[in-house]
Protein: DUF4491 domain-containing protein
Amino acid sequence: MNYVGILIGLATFLIIGLFHPLVIKGEYYFGTRCWWAFLVTGILCAGLSLYVENVYLSIIFGVISFSSFWGILEVFDQRKRVLKGWFPKNPKRLKDYE
Structure:
């Protein structure tokens, strides 16, 4: 049996699942200013994906890269969800929500 597909699928699932709370916490503590951290992570992981010789690590870095790029959009969407009242506002950054 070949378990590689299942393991890569599981890793992808876990990586995407990790990015949901990262986006929520990032927007809560830093606002939309944290988008650049997702950009830098995405670029670094894309580069690593191109240069790592192990095909499985390359795939994982690619998944992290594009999850990071998607996280940029989600940070701005998270702000909209906070403004709608679906998520709590950070009381230390109330001016950012005006």
